[in-house]
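Thread title: Can someone regenerate the structure for this chain?

I was given the following input by a collaborator and told the matching structure tokens would be attached. They weren't. Posting the sequence so someone can regenerate them.
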Amino acid sequence: MRGSGGGGGGIGGRVALGGGGLGVVGLLIYFLMSQFGGTGPSPAAGGIGLGDVSSGQQLDATTLAQKCRTGADANRDHDCAVVAVVNSIQDYWTQEFSRSGQTYRKATTRFFSGGVRTGCGSATSDTGPFYCPADSHVYIDLTFFNELKTRFGAQGGLFTEAYVLAHEYGHHVQNLTGTSKRGTGSGPTSGSVRLELQADCYAGVWANHATTTPTESGKPLVQDVTKDDIARALDTAARIGDDYIQSKLGGGDVDESKFSHGTSKQREKWFTTGFQTGQPARCNTFSTNDLG
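Best answer:
Regenerated them for you:
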């Protein structure tokens, strides 16, 4: 799956970010179901949630959204907040592509536990979250959200999960624009590192626009992105750099020849670049000799 042009960051050749917590992103005011279609049961009626996903099973965001109807649902229910984040990210890229005369094709988010079969092959939870260009799906390993805090020592929180989703959808953008095929090799200046850092930058770009990107209702999903939200994203970025993982979670030695995602400082730098500029064009990691 790594060699097919997708990939995340951190472990198993995938980006691995996440967390727990509720209400960090701010007031979500959009009627979420209008983007996924259907009416579905309300939270009071039950519905299927992330907690219902057993080992070997998967759940897509469309099904998850069936219990999410309003912004109040998103503020109260973690699953609905995740749906809102997915909507916000894809709303932004839909509008950004349209501004440049292109068409953004929405990807599907699939949440899994234990293992999953994809268009890129089979994967286990050891892989972590990842994007598969063969089927244009974002796959989120649910167990890793907790592992980020327990194993990596990250602060966690909803915006940490928003970061992982935005990063993986950054890989979808790369697939649509043809950049994914450049993410090859390993080493500090490899195409793989540049691809991952660009996806981090794209995540920052979305964070910059999250509070101003209107949905079909004309209003943004996210009311506020706080300093604490950004601090949590940067804290996660610092704990999934190649150097941090090798030194803290590996054998203790740092081998730059095996880098595939960038150092902690690089990942922080490129997320910050995207967040501060809000411009996808500033995320061209393939045209610079200074990756940070």
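The two ends are 27 Å apart (CA to CA).
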